[in-house]
């Protein structure tokens, strides 16, 4: 990732403040400003703040973080309107805080960084959130996203069973899944990813 792109990146607290400001203004991130996106941004702020308050580490993720011997940069492509990002980005924030300086989290808005996004597509799509892990030599050593594999499989099942399922209904079912899962699937997959770094 070039230096200019990195200088645009925000830490989690700055990103959270941006989302709060946009919600107060009835806006969202990105070039498309609609009432719907502003509405989802407001919901996502509530989700992020809830996870910040109730997050609890699994033993598996804690152990993986403690084994880290080197420093890594976690760069995440996101947008404030994205429901998956609202459920996952706060987890990365907790990981950074627990890593004792081994992991530095930086957030970039997808639509302002399409060159980087297009290097890390998911099945040809600009799906977010997208985690890109860099080592100290600025080499990409891992990627992850946009959501836990078990949720992706659940979504495929929903689409297969309900060919006429409206997007809003799909979003509701996805968010209900996240609420029931309590970040456990995300923690498991990121623990596996971190284990492979050590």
What does this structure look like?
The protein has 198 residues and is α+β, with helices and mostly antiparallel strands. It has a single domain (3-197), classed as Glutaredoxin, CATH 3.40.30.10. It is built from nine helices and four strands, in the order ααααβαβαββααα. It has helices at residues 3-8, 12-24, 35-54, 59-66, 83-98, 114-117, 149-161, 167-181, 184-197, and strands at 72-78, 103-109, 130-134, 140-144. Strands 2-1-3-4 form a four-stranded mixed beta sheet. β3 and β4 form a beta hairpin. α2 packs across α3 and α4 (59-66) runs parallel beside α9.
**Topology as a string of helices (H) and strands (E):** HHHHEHEHEEHHH
| Main pleated-sheet profile | 4 strands, mixed
CATH fold call: Glutaredoxin
Terminus-to-terminus distance: 22 Å
Helix proportion range: 55-70%
Q: What is the correct CATH architecture?
A: 3-Layer(aba) Sandwich
Number of helices: 9
Features:
about 200 residues, alpha+beta, Glutaredoxin, four-stranded mixed sheet, 9 helices, 4 strands
Present the secondary structure layout.
Layout: H1 3-8, H2 12-24, H3 35-54, H4 59-66, E1 72-78, H5 83-98, E2 103-109, H6 114-117, E3 130-134, E4 140-144, H7 149-161, H8 167-181, H9 184-197
Parallel strand pairs: 1-2
Antiparallel strand pairs: 1-3, 3-4
Helix pairs in contact: 2-3, 3-5, 4-9
């Amino acid at each position: 990732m070039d230096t200019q792109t990195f200088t645009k990146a925000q830490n989690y607290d700055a990103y959270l403040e941006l989302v709060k400001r946009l919600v107060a203004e009835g806006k969202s991130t990105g070039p498309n400003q609609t009432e719907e996106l502003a509405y989802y941004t407001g919901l996502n702020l509530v989700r992020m703040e809830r996870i910040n308050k109730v997050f609890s580490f699994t033993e598996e993720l804690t152990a993986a973080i403690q084994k880290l011997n080197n420093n890594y940069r976690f760069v995440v492509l996101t947008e404030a309107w994205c429901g998956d990002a609202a459920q996952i980005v706060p987890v990365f924030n907790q990981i950074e805080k627990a890593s004792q300086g081994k992991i530095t989290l930086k957030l970039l808005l997808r639509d302002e960084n399409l060159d980087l996004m297009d290097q890390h597509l998911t099945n040809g799509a600009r799906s977010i959130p997208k985690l890109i892990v860099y080592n100290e030599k600025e080499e990409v050593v891992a990627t992850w996203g946009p959501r836990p594999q078990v949720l992706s499989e659940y979504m495929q099942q929903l689409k297969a069973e309900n060919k006429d399922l409206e997007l809003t209904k799909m979003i509701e079912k996805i968010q209900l899944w996240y609420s029931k899962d309590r970040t456990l699937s995300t923690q498991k997959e990121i623990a596996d990813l971190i284990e492979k770094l050590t």
